[in-house]
User: Fold this.
Amino acid sequence: MTIGVMGGGQLGRMLALAGYPLGLDFIFLDRSRSAPAGQIAPLLTAEFTDRGRLAELATRAHVVTFDWENVPVDALRRLGRPIRPSIAALATAQDRAREKQLFERLRIPTTRWRRVGSRRQLAHAVREIGFPGVLKTRRLGYDGKGQAVVRTPVDLDRAWDRLGSAPLLYEEHVPFDCEVSIIGARARRGETAIYPLCLNDHAQGMLRVTRAPYGSARLHASAARYLHRALDHFRYVGVLTIEFFVRAGRLIANEMAPRVHNSGHWTIEGAVTSQFENHVRAVAGLPLGSTRALGHCAMINLIGTVPPRARLLAHPGLHLHEYGKEPRQGRKLGHCTLVAGSPRARDRWVRGLLAELAPDIRIP
Amino acid sequence: MTIGVMGGGQLGRMLALAGYPLGLDFIFLDRSRSAPAGQIAPLLTAEFTDRGRLAELATRAHVVTFDWENVPVDALRRLGRPIRPSIAALATAQDRAREKQLFERLRIPTTRWRRVGSRRQLAHAVREIGFPGVLKTRRLGYDGKGQAVVRTPVDLDRAWDRLGSAPLLYEEHVPFDCEVSIIGARARRGETAIYPLCLNDHAQGMLRVTRAPYGSARLHASAARYLHRALDHFRYVGVLTIEFFVRAGRLIANEMAPRVHNSGHWTIEGAVTSQFENHVRAVAGLPLGSTRALGHCAMINLIGTVPPRARLLAHPGLHLHEYGKEPRQGRKLGHCTLVAGSPRARDRWVRGLLAELAPDIRIP
Assistant:
């Protein structure tokens, strides 16, 4: 069976690396010739709307998935192949307003928010929700892009000047204790498998460190319950992620990603079955594997530069994942993972490695 | 860095899958267009002696290794690239007589044996060593091929008729309690990392089941000492395997393999760093990773046929590795692995799965 993947970034690359041992084949479509997946699998290079290349992908693949949530849904519709997860799930995740509505409909707590289509609507939203708030584009936001924190009327003018040309929403800015994510998979027959909750540390809008498992059984159970609702709502097939803020022990949904997620990279070494393998299993119509954690894991993103391999690999127990990308400021080039015997040993390791790799990053 | 690999079988395929996350690239040379590594990496298809293809491999690779011990050493010499492990180690493993001499020189206990170049020398060897014995070709034997057990003068005639056209050796047939193997790596700077001892069960001359870790600390220490001697002797770079018979608690070396080994496949999920990653790390001049076992592992070879994927993957905790080969009787098509919490849980799992996959195989 050949799985077609729209998008050939590091997520796609890791999907293929997880699927090859299962005897599955892959073909990717990406706009860039140097897409990371292209180094390890056949890659069609074209715009996602290129009819010829889409037809070729459809011919060569039995089923299609995506590694990027901004793939145009019309292109997927045109393929005439099973799309997993569903186009409905993707379309919801592409639009922050639809995503918020879904959270509300499924009784998943989220921030208060208002649609903003004009300067007047923005003023109205601010009157209702107040400062501080966050102005966000409804579409194409990721890694902190397409959003602005607004604390004063001056901020508001600046944010509007920067973002006002696109459909927006304004939401309350939640002072949170920490950020977490829950990742899980649903198979075609409806069985689900949920990974332990992950604790995420960001800097400059990008994920820097994930630690898992995190939090009390109660907190995990809440997050898993919300994730189940979303999985069942879409009759979802594949891996789905929801990110939350935690405030006074309660979860507030921030956003969902209809795909494997950076905060789940630790599962490659840290869980019985990785998020990548479970996504591929689900997409291929196979049973899911165990999501049990194998210890106390940490994942550190390598952003902008990768230290010499030999220096990284000299750290006992460090697992390195390079994505084969050219270094560039602010670019995710790889990650490294450790599976420790205790949260304390893990955190000591993270602090030591961060001091070496990214002295500006501190973890609580 | 690009690693050239002579031979593109399942071992090569798993080397590439282990090396990609380190950011390494691969190129393979194999005689078969359908070599398993060719599905996931660039593959040159030619005889191993094809000068044009060897030159191309040398141009595209920074360093060369092999996944098969019968690669012609002359071809490697011609490449003009660093060969790791060394040609000397490969040449020794290609000739059972040189291998036996090495074991003797390094005081690694082995069976008594005699070179056999003629019918008369065979009669002489049998007089000295007696029945039962094993007549083996010095070269190109694997998976029980190129050898015959000899218990009577009639057996002897038959074995001679079958094998006598090639250089041979005759060795005593050791009644053993079990078969084990030790696998370890040596890096360019001389550091070594040795995996726990593995217990191997064979049928029809082929490995069927490996379980690890196996045996007492004393037995592991003996095997590791012998492996160290061989690693140091060759100033070896990469993974080396020695197979032993165990008789009354003592090790008797059977043969060595200058490469990753079927009995080490469990290390993909069952050790901190797999044998494949450690081989690639050594070949690329990188530090070695930890060889610590993560539990009690079993590996079952899938030979001749592979049951439906969905049926296999429905077994909780089962890890599947398919090699992308066409099914054929007696062919290694894949393997599956389990990491259990205890030897007992592991053995129960192995027995259950064998009853389903290969009812003819029983493990002690």
About this structure: Residues 137 and 166 of chain B are 6 Å apart (CA to CA). Chain B touches chain A at residues 13, 17, 20-23, 25, 39-41, 272, 281, 284-287, 289-290, 294, 306, 309-310, 313-314, 316-324, 334, 339 (CB under 8 Å). The radius of gyration of chain B is 20 Å.
